[in-house]
UniProtKB/TrEMBL annotation, chains A, B, C:
<feature type="active site" description="Nucleophile">
    <location>
        <position position="313"/>
    </location>
</feature>
<dbReference type="GO" id="GO:0046872">
    <property type="term" value="F:metal ion binding"/>
</dbReference>
<feature type="domain" description="Glycoside hydrolase family 42 N-terminal">
    <location>
        <begin position="6"/>
        <end position="390"/>
    </location>
</feature>
<keyword id="KW-0326">Glycosidase</keyword>
<comment type="similarity">
    <text>Belongs to the glycosyl hydrolase 42 family.</text>
</comment>
<dbReference type="InterPro" id="IPR013738">
    <property type="entry name" value="Beta_galactosidase_Trimer"/>
</dbReference>
<keyword id="KW-0479">Metal-binding</keyword>
<feature type="binding site">
    <location>
        <position position="141"/>
    </location>
    <ligand>
        <name>substrate</name>
    </ligand>
</feature>
<dbReference type="InterPro" id="IPR003476">
    <property type="entry name" value="Glyco_hydro_42"/>
</dbReference>
<dbReference type="InterPro" id="IPR013529">
    <property type="entry name" value="Glyco_hydro_42_N"/>
</dbReference>
<dbReference type="GO" id="GO:0004565">
    <property type="term" value="F:beta-galactosidase activity"/>
</dbReference>
<dbReference type="GO" id="GO:0009341">
    <property type="term" value="C:beta-galactosidase complex"/>
</dbReference>
<feature type="binding site">
    <location>
        <position position="103"/>
    </location>
    <ligand>
        <name>substrate</name>
    </ligand>
</feature>
<dbReference type="GO" id="GO:0005975">
    <property type="term" value="P:carbohydrate metabolic process"/>
</dbReference>
<dbReference type="Pfam" id="PF02449">
    <property type="entry name" value="Glyco_hydro_42"/>
</dbReference>
<dbReference type="InterPro" id="IPR017853">
    <property type="entry name" value="GH"/>
</dbReference>
<feature type="binding site">
    <location>
        <position position="107"/>
    </location>
    <ligand>
        <name>Zn(2+)</name>
    </ligand>
</feature>
Amino acid sequence: MRLGVCYYPEHWPEARWADDAAAMVAMGLRQVRIGEFAWSRVEPEPGVFDWGWLDRAIDTLGGAGLRVILGTPTATPPKWLVDAAPDILAWDRQGRVRGFGSRRHYCFSSQTYRQEAARITRAFAGRYGMHPHVAGWQIDNEYGCHDTTLSYSPAAREGFRRWLRFKYRDIAALNAAWGTVFWSQDYGGFGAVELPNLTVTEPNPAQVMDFRRYSSERVVRFNQVMAGIVREHSPGRDIMHNVMGFVTDFDHHALGADLDVTAWDSYPLGFLEQYWFSEAEKVRYARTGHPDIAAFHHDLYRGCSRGRWGVIEQQPGPVNWARHNPAPLPGMVRLWTLEAAAHGAEYVSYFRWRQFPQAQEAMHAGLQRVDGAEAPAAAEVRAVAAELAALGAQTVERAPVALIVDYPGLWAMEAQPQGADYRGIELLFRAYEALRRLGLDVDVVSAAANFSDYAMVVAPVLPFVDEGLVARLAAFEGQVLLGPRAGSKTADFAIPGALAPGALQALIPLKVTQVESLRRDVRHAGDGFVVERWLEHVESALAPELATDDGHGVLWRQGGVRYLSCWPDAGLWRAALVAMAGEAGVAVTTLPDGVRMRRTAERIFVFNWGPDTVDPQPFLGDDDVTKELPVAGVLIANC
Amino acid sequence: MRLGVCYYPEHWPEARWADDAAAMVAMGLRQVRIGEFAWSRVEPEPGVFDWGWLDRAIDTLGGAGLRVILGTPTATPPKWLVDAAPDILAWDRQGRVRGFGSRRHYCFSSQTYRQEAARITRAFAGRYGMHPHVAGWQIDNEYGCHDTTLSYSPAAREGFRRWLRFKYRDIAALNAAWGTVFWSQDYGGFGAVELPNLTVTEPNPAQVMDFRRYSSERVVRFNQVMAGIVREHSPGRDIMHNVMGFVTDFDHHALGADLDVTAWDSYPLGFLEQYWFSEAEKVRYARTGHPDIAAFHHDLYRGCSRGRWGVIEQQPGPVNWARHNPAPLPGMVRLWTLEAAAHGAEYVSYFRWRQFPQAQEAMHAGLQRVDGAEAPAAAEVRAVAAELAALGAQTVERAPVALIVDYPGLWAMEAQPQGADYRGIELLFRAYEALRRLGLDVDVVSAAANFSDYAMVVAPVLPFVDEGLVARLAAFEGQVLLGPRAGSKTADFAIPGALAPGALQALIPLKVTQVESLRRDVRHAGDGFVVERWLEHVESALAPELATDDGHGVLWRQGGVRYLSCWPDAGLWRAALVAMAGEAGVAVTTLPDGVRMRRTAERIFVFNWGPDTVDPQPFLGDDDVTKELPVAGVLIANC
Amino acid sequence: MRLGVCYYPEHWPEARWADDAAAMVAMGLRQVRIGEFAWSRVEPEPGVFDWGWLDRAIDTLGGAGLRVILGTPTATPPKWLVDAAPDILAWDRQGRVRGFGSRRHYCFSSQTYRQEAARITRAFAGRYGMHPHVAGWQIDNEYGCHDTTLSYSPAAREGFRRWLRFKYRDIAALNAAWGTVFWSQDYGGFGAVELPNLTVTEPNPAQVMDFRRYSSERVVRFNQVMAGIVREHSPGRDIMHNVMGFVTDFDHHALGADLDVTAWDSYPLGFLEQYWFSEAEKVRYARTGHPDIAAFHHDLYRGCSRGRWGVIEQQPGPVNWARHNPAPLPGMVRLWTLEAAAHGAEYVSYFRWRQFPQAQEAMHAGLQRVDGAEAPAAAEVRAVAAELAALGAQTVERAPVALIVDYPGLWAMEAQPQGADYRGIELLFRAYEALRRLGLDVDVVSAAANFSDYAMVVAPVLPFVDEGLVARLAAFEGQVLLGPRAGSKTADFAIPGALAPGALQALIPLKVTQVESLRRDVRHAGDGFVVERWLEHVESALAPELATDDGHGVLWRQGGVRYLSCWPDAGLWRAALVAMAGEAGVAVTTLPDGVRMRRTAERIFVFNWGPDTVDPQPFLGDDDVTKELPVAGVLIANC
């Protein structure tokens, strides 16, 4: 696994570049990403290009032995373009234009912007496509970040109408699909359809769902066009995009299909702080990140581009953008790096080389401090570079478990949560966490995947199921676990005529006759678990495998297929997974809280994220390994 | 009492209508409400009407023996109308147009919309006014729902100016009434007055109060015009509107004066979850609703149309629109139905017949599931239909207690709460709760009511008092209890020159010299009660009947008139009510927590909303009744 | 010290004026402020003036022996002006026009408004400038109140662009200063710069910082122009403005330079309720105010106009504008008055004479009730007037401690908090509180002050340091305490090349290499203190004077200079201040919780804000004083 770094030559005097490049190499870095926000410096005026500095930067960095990953700068259209074509701007849900002055201010539906983006992308690719130092490309930057997938602009409205016309052909078909007979929502033509914002009460969820699909496709199509331009001019180079953590507004599987490598930006402390983790988790893991945040995304993004992935931005110290921004515990930068290796990354690239003393990210740490001295992470990077060299390449093998992540399913849960705290992504994450606490390796796959070589398939959030999926699950010989609301929606976002789980009734004969969303203190206790948030009433000839003390079946089974008819807590996830693993013949290991394991073909990696030293011998079953795995420590054992 | 149901023939294939009608009748239902959102299907294009389906639906339903209540569809103007006349749309407080895509998007001040609404109402009434199956009409749907009474549109501004000109005649009169001398707010003419939104800090409360009155009158007038059209074409039929729970933005007494029957929509679980109940109450009563929610509204709306009222939408299972949507406890649909009978409803109509699998309310339960099988409520409905038949008609008699609900008074508390948690509606509700926990039946009346036949009059929120009211109270021979801030405002929203309680000083000689709003942890304890939120300093020759330990008088009495000079907790409400009931010769009964009683001329009904079985013998004083009233149980005893 | 009152003759019948004036004088009042919101009554139509009533009011009040402070009415432009020139209105951060209907709706950047404001100010000053009863002027009212310093109007955009052009001359200089190379933010010209609102994610903090400077300067310049007009027409009279508590949006030192007297509006209960005090403090001090709120502002504003200051609005009872509005404890109006005297006020003026029964402040107490009887405060005022007469003039001497308040530094903490709860003003206040709990008198000074006669200088929030400041601190022979983030920003809002504390490294040799913002439950404990919120990692040859148990140095010292590298709690403030006071030879006294002392040249004042009687003998070391200082009591001892 390569190590690399993100660098902004335009931020620093040209005189420093060579020293910086040499220092990178000396630290063990072999890759450098540049250029992704440099539009205003490459094209300071419309049509006037200043390539000289970038030519020299690439030469200097590449000449020092660094593989250059070149970014296209479309995430930051410059002010002169915004002034010339204000229709490129996105509009927020409140109907306000999202103005210039930060980043990602463009609307994916703007035809003007797509032309301008293609123009600058072509300019970059044309100039550097065959450059010997340019080993790869990053298209744009962090699609979806800052809630930028959805735009409510006039351009988006026009685009959505075109997309609907293409999808439904006949307005009657749209009216039928959305159930517009409800509340007199009938449309007389595609040109009458509005965006689903600023309505008096909630908009039609089928309309929301189509708008989510449309918006996701706009991102994927934008990327596809830009990737195509680059590929045309730069054959043989890796084309990548850097996706974010916990951003699920667009379909990463669809995006990844157009990329050679799905890269992602890993900020374990920032993500812990910003998302829906409990207060106790936010305190406990404040300086390490929750043990499953990075791993979940590693496994997710490994599945997006045929197994090729990397971490193109790795948090090296405190960031500036979370509500609170602590420093990683000593050892964590090494741990995060080795963790990526254990999950099969091609590279880990730290963000950024040197902390920039100005502008929005002035308080974001780098490997060097503002004064040019090394930040605390630098020593860890140098050490782990040596460790990785000694370790050699790691081969990722198919995991025993496939976890299905279906992006449209996540949008459906947002379009119609039915309970204020029903968060699809949280449910997915908790399933992943439960699997990993049992010591299991996991492949995250799309609903279109071939499951046949897995022992277990887990689908926590799968409201949409098509015939092909049902057929593949029916043919699957391993164990299947379906989460609540599986099969609960038709493609048109209707409740299936035969009730949920709809077509999945072919696999497990039950009907969900009623659902309850519950506030957190309304609880149904069971043996080792408590049900909160969500409870389904099930009609079935089956007897439940597990039930609450007050008689609600919560886990149902027929043959190799199980269905969870509630929001499971950690205890219920564990019980269900242990049961299915037993049937599947997959060995599980109860790991101490805060400890995780991950296997490659060559090694077993054990990571300690908890606050105390742990003895790994009991769960590794190996008397030869150390008895003391310290806090933030990593144990690498032979298989 | 009739049972009925809400039905949407336009949602279902015509071939199902006859079977549905037959099944309704078989279940014991005798009434069906239809049509209230069907504008786009009746008039799919401007001026092009498709009556055929509605003709046939009425024939089918009516032919099966169901009384048809026909809704006018003005709550959902279709898209073609919005596109042709965007000035019909409401604007929110933030100055944004409230767009098409859900419902209630019209502005009551739009003259265009009032013409269009009259046109479609006339079309409905003209066609079906004399139809033999049409037994009644519902005008529009849920006025005020989704915060739609107040609109800040240009039309509303114009309308408000006209209304002010009519009210004040001379701008000097307005300036004097509003005290515009304060902060240089003087207006040179009615055309200069703006709506009270988007000001730098709070707007003038007298202006807000007038805007609230204006907005309420717009609702009442809209309804009056539509009701007049229907009445002209459909003489002898009941004209109704379905009002909501806890919506107090317009004056329901004024609305009810133009209706034959005030109908309301009862969603006990949704209302509990959405309103200001404590966390503990929301958990305790999650699956039953707070014991006083439905009853309070029953008694309130019984007082709006000369005693005629009904529940036109009754929650039959989980809804879709609250933050959390649990299922009613088994037995609750029966309990709610019998409760309505005990309060004198003409009918209870469940919402809806069959769960519709699409659009905004796809997750809202019905009597039938999406698959056409019976939902859990169906069996309860069938059973209670039989029970009601056996029970016979119930006669509502005058209650011993009149509780005054004065809508302008509630608006005043919102226009000037003076303490962040001073909620008039909550204070009203807690008074009602306290009365009912003493086993008392209550009539809710307007401030214009004739009190003479009551034993007790309770007015928790009565800032405005006019001469007539003072005279009626002075002449009243029973016991009166006035809440805090009674008489604290003149009609122009000024503090009375003689201080609060203003003209009520004729009844009880005291002056409120100073008021304090207190955060919840700043407490003044008394014997069996604690004062939080609100405390008045009183100057009086009277000695207080009750005082806090630190010497603040909180209950004052002269003759039959009492005044509460604080926000009372349950203990203080109880103490005050027990004292006045004693003087009034009204017997009280301390009911167990969660138990309520209600008497008709024929029966005593006892309802158990609590989590445990209770023994009703002690408080009924009747050894013959059961000793075990189960959870969600109803005991019907002879008087 | 004079006592006075705020009065609105336009609110009352002319027939009452003389009686009111006589009653004021009889109560011991000698000053009256009038006129500051009277524009619409003085100029009811454009160019049509009605001076008669104001002439007579001034004659009546002045004739009764009251010094008249006349307000210019620019805080409330009348409706006819708003209608004629809507460009005078401010725009909020969300891009909405802030409309007419309350106050302070004007935009400081509007050239139209500046002309109109000058016109009306000239009219007032021209008419009354030489009036014998007019002893002083108040320009406008409460700049910044209701978040009105910052406006995002087109006029503000134009003004900001002009200001930037003047500051930077060359757009390249602006681009360099703001680091616009980051995220392609480069501007091609000053006309391309937008205001820093409505961006996709956070705007450039250097841009925000310049906008804050610009906006502050607009306030200062507006006041300067108006003060200049008044001074020209009214030589020899005191020119004042009434600033608010905890409003720090503009530079009060710069404002004060153009005033003769900095007046302020003291609402101890309202401020406690509205700001960031803990829940426990809000309950404990609900009826007294936190003991340091008024004192902090007294000392702050005493430093703004060369020592001349007063309280022009003093809370006399419950106000109307806080979330909760309790009444002051009996004795508090006296205590607050004597406290102002102890801090050297020229006057205390109660707001307002009589409670006005209408409009936005109808619920705001006065010295008279609405019915004209005396409110509870009146007796305290009468008594304290006599006490003050007996006490004689108080001479304020230089305090031993200078506390630096640097407004740009506070804006910097808002432009880039880096942790969600890093509030500069709170940090400042807690330093002040800690000093006062040690019995120390404090002078609050600007960063430009001459420190040489102080024993101690404390600078809790000082991110910007210029050469002059460093030189003054270096030359200073007393003890210096620097708070976290001192010297952390260059003037252009960059991190210093040599890291924080930048130029202050000349005084104390350390570098802040990394900073952590921490959520409240992530704690580092030490001996008698706990670090939360903020922790800096320091590189230094120095050994820390204090460190956490886990080894983080938190207090550093070289010679007389100390640096706090964390957010200190009360324990750490105390430890640091006790240490430096010891070195400085300043005696400290540990006061009981809730007790404060303040010395003049003539007296020692002791105030008891706590809930219990205290014995002041131990900390006064004086056996002759009372042993029982009651709640809300004041002890005045000889020095």
